[in-house]
Amino acid sequence: MRNRWDEVREAPADGDRLDQCVHVSRLLGADPDLVLHGGGNTSVKTMRQDALGNDVATLLVKGSGWDLATIERPGFAPLRLERLREILGAESLSDSAMMNELRCALLDARAPDPSVETLLHALIPETFVLHTHADAVLTLTNLDDGEARIRAALGDDLIVIPYVMPGFDLAKHCRDLLGGVTGPMPQTMVLMCHGVFTYGESARAAYGRMIEIVGRAEQYIAEHTNAARPTAQTNAARPTAQTEAAPDIRGTAPDALELASLRQAVSRVAGAPMIATRAADPASTAFCRRPDLATVSQRGPATPDHVIRTKRLPMVGRDVGAYAKEYVAYYESQESGVSQESDSANAPMTMLDPAPRIALDPELGVIAFGRRPKDAAIAADVYGHTIGVIEHAEQLGGYRALSPEDIFAVEYWELEQAKLRRAGSPPEFAGEVALVTGAASGIGKACVEALLGRGAAVVGLDVDAGVTTTASGPDYLGVVADVTDPAAVQDAIARAVDRFGGIDMLIASAGVFGASRPISDFDPRQWRSTLSVNTDAFADLLAQLHGLLKLAPRYGRVVLIGSKNAAAPGPGAAAYSASKAAATQLARVAALEWASDGIRVNIVHPDAVFDTGLWTPDVVEARAAHYGMTVEQYKQRNLLHTEVTSEIVGTLVADVCGPSFRATTGAQIPVDGGSDRII
């Protein structure tokens, strides 16, 4: 641990306590060894005025849905501190009732839902309160002699709280415990198998204490183990590989097909398409090859908070059916106990899907699953840190986790079940993966945007380096690749499968339109280069992707961006027209051959799409003048007198990939505003 108070940017003035809290929160959130993906929470106590101008003692606490790494002032929920302390006096309160009381205590109805640990923040008297799930602290608490190890590593100036489920029960337990504390209150509270609280009268003091405490834990681990924690990483950020050209590559790498097959099996059990993210770095691979993996990995998560992301146990190997049966048995055994003991027995409980969120395989590495790429990436990240905790805890005497009953209580917490009931329908293509060629501009870029807008994960290929910035976020991977280089395409496909688990849709948009040239002035180099991009590359893509498209969780789809010229060629465009006609025939043959695999293949034929790189303003003006038209008239030179844009084509492509076209294959769909030559 390194104290970064002055490293990132100058801390805000002491006079603005909320700005101080934002600053310290971001410092904590920037360190994944302290908090991960929405974990942890912070608060500050201050005075505010209500709508009547009255001064009100206020607790500003991190709101639900905000991440400490990026939190801003609106991310803190303002609550009446006096009311919170009244709520703390209750002897019994369900967590749903507690959350209702917290919302009633808000000074601003527009504020986010307060943290479930708000009452504990209100209980601690210091001004600034910080809570993290630090890996080093979790490592020590997840030992049989965890409390003794904590005191040996961190000293006696702390309070150790046995595990109590977060929410009202934890706040009540701490209330009763702290009521018996005499003298100055220790500045640290360690919650077994949960995390650590530090606090102080200034943000800097509370933060300094957090760094000191976690640093002591790290030092203790370093002194009592023989190796630094290996860092497990996903392949999501792997740089583009520079692959030497290899002639005549066909088919898909076996490990890619194995991962796609596993993804398909998990998706079937989950009842919906899932993203699969693979981590095959040395630390992940070494963990998956531990001789005791079948036992050490089956003890539970490092903290119950992680169960929402990773489920209680990972799957070892690839038997998804067996894992699902064991999960159902776990649910049924625990659910019956909850029905007998819980005060919320009347609340309906819905079983989550029984599919794994983490798989551990000696050959494939660590695979994380999620409905969206972000979900899979978070699960992978959380489990990467879990590996570090387990590895160190095993060296310190043996990793252990909480009981299945404790984990189930969080996994099926009434608050989590309420979120499940409120959740809306996922986007149309959630969990599915599309590969788009020619994605840096024009129609290809529009297809990327349309598919992302409907929830797909998208891999964009283009020879233009701008493909890496066509879109941003965890749902998009841009790869610089020449589609005429089979080795480069194979490497791009391997990266796509590592990142997302498979490919369900191919949108072949890459194309070239050479200079106008009559057949009498035939140029063999132009002819070959045009067919190489427009036809040969498409054939190679079909060959390389067939195996993956067969393994699509729903069904495979191919959409070729053809051209009006395939049916109605123009003079001077022999190479372009012939290449698009040949590619159209390829797609039709694929539709015939692949129908038995459930793969549908369709062609979209655009014409006169002027917002692409093929049409510069000068070219458009020249062509309009040639026909004696204005530019606007020339752009609408079709039966419907409407301009065809890349966005229109991209939207149609997404439609063709959707369920409305479930019974359509081999179709050729014009998007040209109506052409009398085609009709």
From TrEMBL:
Spans traversing the lipid bilayer: none
Name the Gene3D superfamilies for this protein. Answer: Class II aldolase/adducin N-terminal domain (3.40.225.10), NAD(P)-binding Rossmann-like Domain (3.40.50.720)
- Which residues are in the Ketoreductase domain? 432-602
Q: Name one Pfam family in it.
A: adh_short
Span of the signal peptide: none
Tell me which residues make up the Class II aldolase/adducin N-terminal domain. Answer: 20-221
Q: Does the keyword Oxidoreductase apply?
A: yes
Q: Looking at the record, which segments are called Disordered?
A: 227-250
Q: Where is the composition biased (Polar residues)?
A: 231-243
Ordered alphabetically, the record's keywords are: Oxidoreductase
Family annotation (InterPro entries): Aldolase_II/adducin_N, Aldolase_II/adducin_N_sf, KR_dom, NAD(P)-bd_dom_sf, Sc_DH/Rdtase_CS, SDR_fam
Instruction: Tell me yes or no: is Oxidoreductase among this UniProt entry's keywords.
Output: yes
| Family affiliation | Belongs to the short-chain dehydrogenases/reductases (SDR) family.
Which NCBIfam families does this UniProt record tie to the protein? PRK08324.2-4 (NF006196)
Protein name listed in UniProt = Bifunctional aldolase/short-chain dehydrogenase
From which source organism is this entry?
Catenulispora pinistramenti
